[in-house]
Automatic annotation (TrEMBL):
It comes from marine sediment metagenome. Coiled coil: none annotated. InterPro entries: HerA-like, P-loop_NTPase. This is Helicase HerA central domain-containing protein. Signal peptide: none annotated.
Length: 170
């Protein structure tokens, strides 16, 4: 997703380096890494200084968006309340070239989809699960799933629409 966020091809130098740095962070600390952790991994990788500097600029830019935590990883349930209607107003996030609204929606939708799929499997095995069914309503959905082009959130939203009923998503 990081390569998609910056519109980098995973088969080109910057995409390869960013992918490796994110993978190193994942292997080292799990899912709880920050932008500074990625930047640190980029500096450790072998590669052209020019490529490293370009990635560092992109990471600095992402830091300036102020949608990523600076000091700690935050669990999704610190933001969303289970057993309640949660309204996320993404209009306060600038649309921008890199599609920050799409990023936020993609991360949340992917997480919720995954949690509901796990809950469904647990239920099928006769195990308890406290993950509730989820309804997702998107105002101006055509901005997140435009025809003829891709966005960060398009794949998960299409999957949600096609497969979501099975894990309890609507």
């Amino acid at each position: 997703m990081w390569c998609d966020l910056f519109d980098l091809d995973i088969n080109e130098l910057m995409g390869i380096m960013l992918f490796k740095a994110v993978r190193q962070c994942s292997q080292r600390v799990g899912k709880e890494f920050l932008i500074d952790d990625i930047a640190s991994e980029v500096t450790k990788l072998h590669g052209l200084d020019q490529t490293k500097e370009a990635i560092q600029r992109k990471l600095d830019m992402a830091h300036d968006w102020q949608i990523f935590e600076e000091h700690r990883y935050r669990e999704i349930w610190e933001i969303l309340q289970p057993d309640a209607i949660n309204v996320l107003d993404l209009s306060v996030i600038a649309q921008g070239r890199y599609g920050l609204r799409n990023l936020v929606l993609a991360v949340l939708a992917t997480f919720i989809f995954r949690m509901r799929a796990i809950a469904r499997r647990r239920k099928a095995l006769g195990l308890a699960s406290d993950t509730k069914k989820v309804w997702l309503a998107i105002d101006e959905a055509h901005n997140f799933c435009p025809s003829g082009r891709s966005t960060l959130s398009k794949d998960i939203l299409i999957r949600w629409a096609k497969e979501g009923r099975q894990p309890g998503l609507s």
